[in-house]
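This part of the workshop introduces the protein records we will be handling. To make this concrete, we reproduce a full record directly below:
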Amino acid sequence: MHPVVLYAPLHLSEAVQGTVGQLECNITSPISGDRAILVIWYKGDQTIPFYT
C-alpha cells in the first residue's frame, strides 16, 4: 500500500453551533480501483490534524 496525498483548493465553510456543517472534499483516488481508508484534516500549516 502506498500513501496518496491529495491537495485541493481552499473553500470557506461555515456552520452554526448545534447544526450540521458540510466540508467540501473529493477523496477520489487517482489510482483506479483504490479507495480511502483514512482521511485526516489539517488546518493551515498545523502539523497536528484537527479531525480524522
The chain has no helices and no strands. The chain has one domain: 1-51. The chain has a mean pLDDT of 77. Residues 1-51 form one domain.
